[in-house]
Structure formats: structure tokens, C-alpha cells
Design brief:
heterodimer; A: alpha+beta; FAD/NAD(P)-binding domain; seven-stranded mixed β-sheet; 27% strand; elongated; B: mainly beta; Folate-binding fold; 2 helices; globular; TrmE/GcvT-like (chain A); oxidoreductase (chain A); SoxA_A3 (chain A)
């Protein structure tokens, strides 16, 4: 039953019917129809319910400014909320459901809420639910609120393409002005991109063009061909929704319903804004009744979709622009009657307008079409920082003169006259912009009469009426930003595209001030709602934060390693599929009893070279590096200028002018940046060179009493004898033909060698060491076992056993602070009042009574005197197979004397433990020097 | 998203850059006596000027530090100079 569809006209294809559903009933439209045009064609007038009062709502506009026709839509098992019926093109089998309405928009069981409107005015929630506690009411209110529901099904393959592009000139809007400007710019040799958000280019030309002796179809086709022949690109279905710094414009390109839209990050040398203008509503009593529609929208439905919005409508307008549309409607057979807006005019009807009443006179009609004047669409202009002027003639905010980076043309610039807009666009496209032409457009401001009878809607979707604006003004929420938040005016789905000017006009009238003095709210991106997915794209999981992979990963997998992420690296936590904890205990014990083989490839290997390398590292490190001999290794800290421990690790002096900085695995990038910054800013960069070799060398560590026995069977040129190769020294040699580096350093407290080869030879090294290990009964151990071994020795991990206040003397490293002669990063900060305080948190060990389990990591030490407060916390805690439960903690010094007891609180449980030395294993270091 | 120009690599997206410091700040010679106030000013006080600013940035992909001049109000980039040429 197609009652309002005309037999000809429009941009739809009548040979391609499409069936769709709305609120459980099936309807038919044509290819090219939006849901809204197809529903109007079928005579469906109620498409939703309002947010607060559940009032029936009809279609108001024909495009993005629609406040009412929001739907949940399902197609092919995919459901999406927040779809505008006016911008969603119908597809076969599409099922739309009105929102905020049950069971249907036409028969909504909550429609009765409207009877209570007297009590639900502006600030109702703030005032009513403040006592006793908003949170008591919130769940119920939240359940009632909202428009539509999110489907819980995950949309598979809903992934946005991310396009990065650039152009000389981006033209936003494919109407007469935009097409003209794009053609002129392209023909002038510019790289031009034109974007338009509709399916068919032409903007308002189909509605307005006929009167200017232009055949819209032919004219648009000619411009399109000319643009493309000149090398311009055209993107339809594409909305420019935000303008950012340095000519970055965000574009969202629809891919059809249920498919993720594509994002374009378009970098434009110049943005030409040809975004057009919107028609304003007129504020009068019951102006929210379905059947009351923007006059321009009615013109669009006729011109683009061949749909007659009303056969016998009343028209109220205050501007000259409306004439062409009225003419078009009449020419198509609509019996339009014009009515002047007068005080007390009231819409008639319950679910659809039946006409207007003026005093006692009733004028019957099947629709009311209103045109309250044009509002240039200046959103993008404001995003880009463009300023606005108030134009008295146009009764609108219009863009101030252009800059090099952006220019507004056509209706967006207040140039509503078609011939003038084309002239202005031509000039802008050629790069010789002209001043805004004087206009033939006339309009009269319709005074908003406060305190008048009847409910007059300002924001259709959020049910903000003129009375609410009056309440806000009375309660001194007179700033537009306050008005917006107090009444929720302009906070609906359309973000004030229909309601803001009406609200401003009302507030101006109430305060007796001109509109420009009332001002506008801030325009922020996005211009239309966009799914968050568009920022996400393929950047998920591994692609969002790629994990670093070991060169020996396959070898570890052969051994059934359990891989975990440690500081950005995927590393073996333990080996084998047995019980996690038992396996870790076994590995930690074996490493002490015989030895363990450990993949240490992730350790930083930043080479620092050059004649000033020694002085540079002496400055970068807390510890003295100057006295380190070639072949020697020293443990040390890097501090921030604030004196806080930033990283720890060993420095190897390979030769006089060459060092290897072995920083923490997870800190390599940070340390490299730190070194580069100080190298280039404050030093002579020609005399120091910093080269990160971390991934160029693979490292296998062998630790434990049998470490030397394991390595002895390798075919190397390096003498491992204790006297020839003592603890904290470094040797270079070869293994067969492979270059080899061995550092005798230890993170476990046992005899330990870090053996490195160029990464390409990693497997050869691993195979040789594991084969040699097998003969000695020595197996690989994972990072978890290594963590236990280092904690037994009281060896710290920066960022785990230290925090953002830890200084080196808190960790027991006091000598450089007291004695180092040279300047170093952070030096002065170690002598402030704060650094000298008695109650600094210091590193200690904690010992639990026999038979008790380990403490919880993160548990706080506390005191009750004078009041309960934290004294510090447990930073590391393990069950050790070698020494029992162990823990490291940082505790305020006065409470951290060895032998003292201290209380530890965790989840309501209090335990008493004893402060001990952080080192719990081989405190004389005999094993280290074996 | 802004575009900065690395003196060595050319114009790039701001995500490739890392702010290091305001230009012109010299580290006090810590071998001399420095008052708490002077040290605190070095550590924590920034001019944070409105308008024309001179800053040291690192182009993280090539590792070079350079002097970036820009307008902190309009976000206009006024120029990039290699540190050696800037005589910093």
C-alpha cells in the first residue's frame, strides 16, 4: 500500500523493490530509499518515542539532523543500535525496530508517562533523587533511560579499514557549491578530493535547482565527469566528521549496513567547506506532533525519493528560501496552504497532526511543514578553530573570512542563492576567493514568547520544552553551556543540530538579549556518531601491542615451554606441561643443586663507543665507571635527574673506548632514548656513539655449581679456569667459527656465565649447551625459577622491588652518593631534605615463622600507633625450594631494623613477620666466586 | 594530529616524536654548591609559554634530537633545526 509515493520523480529505482520490516510489519520500498523515505511512502507516521515522556515522534528531517527516527536495525543476523532512519539506505530483509517504545512506536505502553510531564521538568532528577542517595535510584533510572539496546552478539569481521591519504584540496560537500569548487580546483591542477555523505551527489540541487534553470541530473553528471577527468577523486557515502590540527580531516566512509565503516585520515592542504545549511524548527504549542516536519525535508523527500510528505499541508515559514520548495510541492500536486505564525497557534491531534488551531479557528490539514530559517552548517569550521560572525540579515552565525587553510562556500557560508553560490565556489576553487556576496535572502525572527500556553518543544528527542528553558533561566543556568547540561538541550543523538538555535533564540528572548550575546555551545567532533571501531581497525591484540619474540622460541616450544609475557617479551615461564608450581620449584632446586640453562637474550646490550664514552657513562651512571678496567664488569644504577633509580644492570668495558650497557630486558628502549638524549643534548655527539645491539646477539645463561663443567665441553677459545676468568669479567673468543662473548655475571647468586653469539647462530649455541647440559644432568629453567633464585639473593628488579620514590641509598648502595667525585645524573637530588629523611622506605627481607606460607606480594606492613597507617609493602614473595618462604619489601627505615617484628596486613588477615637481610642464600658469596 | 619536521627525515606524524625538554635550559654544574631552590627550578620549573616556543624533541624513529619552534596557541610549526646548527 504505497499511498504517498509519486509515480515519477526522485533518484530511486522503481524497478527494484525492496522488502523490509518495521516494528514487526513488512513494507516495501525501492532501491535508493532511506528507511525514513520508505516509511513515509508507506504512510507510517510514528517512528519512535521521545526520551523522557514517550511522546509519539515522526520523521522531522531528511538527513543527519534527524532527532526522532532512531532505530535498532537487524540484517543477516547483525544488529546495530543508534541507526538514523533518515541516513540508512534500505536493504532487502532489513528489520528496523523503533526505540524507547514497547511493543511498538504506535502503541507504547509507557506513553502514559506524558501525563506526568508537569513533574518531570528540567532538573527533575537533580532535585528529586538527591535524597537520600542518588545511587539508590540510579539502577532503575538507568534501566528506563537510553535509546535502543546494544546487541550482545560480537560482530565478527566488524573491522574498519584505516586509510591514510593526502590531497591539496579537500572539498566537503557534493552540492552545487562543492562540485563547482572541486572542478575548478582540479582543473587548476590541484590534487582534489571531494567527499559527500549521500548516495547521490548534488546536495540540495534536486530540491532547489529546477527554479534556476539547471537540470540537476545533467549538471551533476557533467561536474562529476569534469572533476574525474581532471584527476580529482570523489568519495560518496563519506562524512567528514572532524577537523584536527595541521589539516587533518577525519572521514568515515559507510560500507553498507552491518559492515564496519572505513576511516580516512585525510591530510589536506586546504579544506573547502561546502557543507550546506539546515532548516530550523519553529517553536509553537505541540510542535512535536508527528506529521510536523521541516519544509526543506519535505522538499528533499519529494525531490530525492518521489515521496509526498503531506497532500494537504499547512506551511509556516519565516524566510524567502522556502518559496522554491513550496513551489515544487505545489507543482507535484500538494495542496499547500501558507499560515502566518501567530501567538497561541497550536497543533491539533494526538498521534498525528490534524491541522492547526488559532484561537477558536481550526484549520484542517494532513501535515504541518515549517521552515524557521537557514542555519549554515559550521561544525567543521569550528572544529578547525574558525570564528563566527552573527549576521543580522540572515539571522544566523556565519563563518568569518577564510584563512589559507580553510574556506567556507555556498550555504555553509550563508550564500543561499544558487547562482551566487556557484560563483563563490568557482572563485574559491581557483584559489582567488571573493567576499561573501550580498544576499537576496530575507527572514524575520519569530519571537519566542515566554510564559505562553501549551508545551512548545525545543529539543524533540530529549523532550526539552520552552518551559524547561524558562526554568533554567529562572534558576540562573543562563550560560548556554549550563543551559545545555541542566536541561539536556542539544545532548540528544543529533547533538543539537535541530534544537540549538531554537534554544539560543528562546534564551535570548527570556533574557532580553540579542542572540550573539547568548553565544553558542562548543562544536566538537564527531559531526555524526561514529562507531569506536573506526579507531581500532586491525590494531587489536598482537597488532595493538606486538610482543617481542625470542630467536630461540622454536627450541623452547620443542621443550614444551609455558610462554608468558615478561616486559613485552614472550619468554618461557617454565618447561613442561606438569603442575606449574611444582615444576617451578623443581627448576629452582635443580639450578642450585647442579645448574640451569636460561635464555637471557632479552637482556639489554647497548654499546657505547668513542673517545668520550668513559666520561659519558661515568656521568650517566650513579656508580663510578671511570675506574673500570677493560675486560671488567660493574653493577650499577642509572638515576633520573630526580635521583630516582631508573634502571639497574651491569656495564662491561670491552676496551678503553667501548662499553656494553646491559640494562633490564623491559627497559632497553627507554634506556636507549635516555642515553641518546644526554649524548646529543649536553655532550659532543661526535665523540660518543650509542648503538643498541640487544637483538643482534642471542644469550644463553648457564648458572649453578656445574655451570663451568657444562661450558667446558664446548669447543671455545676462552679459558674458563677460575683464576683466568673470575667473577665480573668479560671475555671474547670463538666457538668454532662463531664469534663468542662470555660475561661472568650472576643474577642467581651462583657461578654463572652469560654466553652470547650473533643471533643467526643462536640455535647452534643452544644445541651445544643443552647437549653438554644433558651429559651433566642439567636442563633449561624458565623465568619463574630465575625470579626465585634472584630473590633468594636479595637481587632486585627495578619497578618491582622499587617504586617511584626509591633512591640508591634506600637499596643499600651508599658509596657514590657520599664519595663520587664526578657529576652524575641525579646527583644533587640525593642531597635534598627528602633524600635525607629518616623515614625513607628501604629494602629489607621478611622472614615468616616456621611452617607458615609465603606472604602475599603487595601486602602492606602497618603500624597502629598513633593511628593505623602503612609503613611499606611486600614487593616480591616466593616459596623457595632452597630456603623456604622468602620475601622482599620496602619499609620505612625506623621500622626496618633487622630482627624487629612487623605486622603485615592482607585481606583482613594480619601476620607477624621478622625483618631480615634481603639476602637469604650464600651471604658470603662463596658460590658466586667458585 | 600534528606534523613535525625532522631536520633529517622530513615531515612526519607527531606520533613519531618524543618531547625532551624546553630549549635553553642548562644543567647546573653539580660539582658546585647549588641551592635547593635552584635545583628545584632546574628540575620542575618550565616556562610553558603561550605563543612562540622553542623545544627540544627527539624523532624516535631516527633517534636525532632537534630544536622545534612552534606556536603553542595556533599549533603552527615554525621550524626545525638540527641541534648542532642551533648551537645548543
Amino acid at each position: 500500500m504505497t499511498t504517498r509515493r509519486l509515480n515519477s520523480g526522485g533518484l530511486i529505482d522503481r524497478s527494484k523493490p525492496i522488502s523490509f520490516w518495521f516494528d514487526g510489519k513488512t513494507y516495501e520500498g525501492f532501491e535508493g530509499d532511506t528507511l525514513a523515505s520508505a516509511l513515509l511512502a508507506n504512510g507510517v507516521s510514528i517512528v519512535g518515542r521521545s526520551f523522557k515522556y514517550h511522546r509519539p515522534r515522526g520523521v522531522w528531517s531528511a538527513w543527519v539532523d534527524e532527532p526522532n527516527a532512531i532505530m535498532n536495525i537487524r540484517l543477516n543476523g547483525k544488529e546495530q543500535p543508534n541507526c538514523l532512519a533518515t541516513t540508512t539506505y534500505i536493504e532487502e530483509g532489513m528489520a528496523a525496530r523503533s526505540v524507547n517504545a514497547f511493543p511498538t512506536a504506535k502503541y507504547d505502553i509507557k506513553g502514559g508517562l506524558d501525563l506526568f510531564h508537569r513533574f518531570l521538568g528540567a532538573g527533575f532528577y537533580y532535585k528529586t533523587f538527591i535524597w537520600p542517595d542518588w545511587h539508590l535510584f540510579e539502577p532503575a533510572i538507568r534501566k528506563m533511560a537510553g535509546l535502543g539496546a546494544v546487541d550482545r552478539e560480537v560482530l565478527e569481521d566488524f573491522q574498519s579499514a584505516q586509510n591514510h591519504a593526502k590531497c591539496d584540496v579537500l572539498v566537503v560537500g557534493g552540492g552545487a557549491a562543492g562540485l563547482t569548487a572541486a572542478r575548478a580546483a582540479a582543473e587548476a591542477g590541484k590534487d582534489v578530493v571531494l567527499v559527500d555523505d549521500q548516495r547521490v551527489l548534488g546536495g540540495s540541487l534536486y530540491r532547489c535547482g529546477a527554479t534556476a534553470d539547471i537540470d540537476p541530473d545533467e549538471w551533476v553528471a557533467a561536474q562529476k565527469t569534469a572533476i574525474e577527468n581532471a584527476g580529482g577523486r570523489i568519495l560518496t557515502h563519506t562524512t567528514a566528521y572532524g577537523v584536527y590540527d595541521h589539516g587533518l580531516v577525519a572521514l568515515v566512509q559507510s560500507q553498507g549496513f552491518g559492515r564496519a565503516p572505513a576511516l580516512w585520515r585525510m591530510r589536506a592542504g586546504q579544506v573547502i567547506m561546502a557543507t550546506g545549511a539546515l532548516d530550523r524548527p519553529i517553536t509553537f504549542a505541540k510542535n512535536d506532533l508527528p506529521g510536523t516536519m521541516s519544509l526543506n525535508a519535505a522538499g528533499e523527500y519529494l525531490a530525492r525519493y518521489g515521496v509526498m510528505a503531506a497532500n494537504k499541508p499547512l506551511v509556516m515559514r519565516n524566510n524567502s528560501h522556502a518559496s522554491a520548495t513550496i513551489e515544487n510541492l505545489r507543482a507535484a500536486g500538494s495542496k499547500v496552504e501558507e499560515i502566518d505564525h501567530v501567538d497561541g497557534i497550536t497543533n491539533q491531534g494526538r498521534k498525528h497532526t490534524t491541522g492547526l488551531r488559532i484561537g477558536k479557528d481550526q484549520i484542517d490539514a494532513d501535515g504541518v511543514l515549517v521552515s524557521g530559517g537557514l542555519t549554515p552548517l559550521v561544525h567543521l569550521w569550528r572544529h578547525a578553530g574558525g570564528k563566527l560572525d552573527w549576521c543580522e540579515t540572515r539571522q544566523a552565525f556565519v563563518p568569518k573570512p577564510a584563512t589559507d587553510a580553510m574556506i567556507a562556500i555556498g550555504a555553509a557560508n550563508g550564500t543561499y542563492d544558487l547562482a551566487q553560490a556557484i560563483e563563490e565556489a568557482e572563485a574559491a576553487g581557483k584559489g582567488t576567493p571573493i567576499d561573501r556576496p550580498s544576499t537576496t535572502y530575507t527572514t524575520t525572527l519569530i519571537d519566542t514568547k515566554p510564559h505562553s500556553k501549551g508545551r512548545q518543544w525545543i529539543d524533540f528527542q530529549h523532550d526539552v520544552t520552552l518551559k524547561d528553558i524558562e526554568v533554567a533561566a529562572r534558576e540562573n543556568y543562563v550560560s548556554v553551556e549550563h543551559l545545555k547540561r541542566y536541561t539536556t538541550l542539544g545532548m540528544a543523538f543529533d547533538q543539537g543540530k535541530t534544537s540549538n538555535m531554537a534554544g539560543l533564540t528562546a534564551m535570548a528572548a527570556l533574557r532580553g538579549k540579542p542572540i550573539p550575546q547568548v553565544g553558542t555551545t562548543t562544536f566538537r567532533p564527531p559531526f555524526v556518531p561514529v562507531p569506536l571501531e573506526i579507531y581500532h581497525g586491525a590494531k587489536t591484540k598482537q597488532l595493538w601491542s606486538p610482543v617481542k619474540r625470542l630467536p630461540l622460541e622454536d627450541k623452547h616450544r620443542d621443550l614444551d615451554a609455558a610462554f608468558c609475557e615478561y616486559g613485552g617479551w614472550l619468554r618461557p615461564g617454565w618447561y613442561g606441561s606438569g603442575d606449574r608450581d611444582a615444576t617451578i620449584q623443581k627448576e629452582a632446586k635443580a639450578a642450585r643443586d647442579t645448574a640451569g640453562i636460561f635464555d637471557g637474550s632479552t637482556l639489554g646490550k647497548i654499546e657505547v663507543m668513542g673517545p668520550d664514552a668513559e666520561a659519558f657513562l661515568n656521568f650517566v651512571y650513579y656508580n663510578t665507571i671511570k675506574s673500570l678496567k677493560p675486560g671488567g664488569i660493574r653493577y650499577g644504577f642509572m638515576l633520573t635527574e630526580g635521583g630516582i633509580v631508573y634502571d639497574d644492570g651491569v656495564v662491561t668495558r670491552v676496551d678503553q673506548n667501548r662499553f656494553i650497557v646491559s640494562c633490564s630486558s623491559s627497559h632497553v628502549d627507554g634506556v636507549r632514548t635516555h642515553l641518546e638524549a644526554w649524548r646529543q643534548d649536553g655532550n659532543d655527539p661526535d665523540r660518543i656513539f650509542v648503538h643498541d645491539q640487544t637483538t643482534a646477539w642471542a644469550t644463553v645463561t648457564v648458572t649453578g655449581p656445574k655451570a663451568r663443567d657444562v661450558l667446558s665441553s664446548l669447543d671455545t677459545t676462552i679459558d674458563l679456569a677460575p683464576d683466568a676468568f673470575p667473577h665480573m669479567t668479560f671475555r671474547e673468543g670463538t666457538m668454532g667459527a662463531i664469534p663468542l662473548r662470555i660475561a661472568r655475571v650472576s643474577f642467581s647468586g651462583d657461578l654463572s656465565y652469560e654466553v652470547s653469539v650473533p643471533t643467526g647462530h643462536a640455535e647452534t649455541l643452544w644445541n651445544a649447551i643443552t647437549a653438554a647440559g644433558k651429559e651433566q644432568g642439567v636442563s633449561p629453567i624458565g623465568l619463574e625459577a630465575m625470579s626465585i633464585l634472584r630473590a633468594e639473593k636479595g637481587f632486585i628488579i627495578i619497578g618491582k622491588d622499587t617504586d617511584g620514590e626509591t633512591m640508591p641509598h634506600d637499596l643499600g648502595f651508599t658509596i657514590p652518593r657520599a664519595k663520587k667525585k664526578a657529576a652524575f645524573i641525579g646527583d644533587r637530588s640525593l642531597h635534598t631534605e627528602k633524600a635525607n629523611a629518616d623515614d625513607r622506605k628501604v629494602l629489607v627481607g621478611l622472614s615468616v615463622p616456621d611452617g607458615e606460607p609465603p606472604l602475599a606480594t603487595g601486602a602492606h606492613a602497618f603500624t597502629e600507633t598513633p593511628t593505623r597507617r602503612s609503613l611499606g609493602y611486600v614487593t616480591s614473595s616466593y616459596q623457595s625450594p632452597n630456603v623456604g618462604p622468602i620475601a622482599l619489601a620496602i619499609i620505612e627505615a625506623p621500622h626496618a631494623k633487622v630482627g624487629d617484628t612487623i605486622k603485615i596486613w592482607h585481606k583482613e588477615e594480619v601476620r607477624e613477620v621478622t625483618i631480615c637481610d634481603p639476602c637469604r642464600f650464600d651471604s658470603e658469596g662463596g658460590r658466586l666466586h667458585a | 594530529m600534528q606534523i613535525f619536521t625532522c631536520p633529517f627525515c622530513g615531515p612526519r606524524d607527531e606520533r613519531e616524536f618524543h618531547f625532551i625538554a624546553e630549549a635553553g635550559k642548562t644543567r647546573p654544574d653539580t660539582l658546585n654548591q647549588i641551592s635547593d631552590e635552584d635545583w628545584a627550578a632546574y628540575l620542575h620549573s618550565h616556562r610553558n609559554e603561550k605563543g612562540h616556543v622553542r623545544e627540544i624533541w627527539m624523532h624516535t624513529t631516527c633517534g636525532e634530537l632537534f630544536l622545534l619552534e612552534r606556536d603553542s596557541v595556533t599549533m603552527e610549526v615554525l621550524g626545525s633545526t638540527a641541534l648542532r646548527e642551533a648551537g645548543q
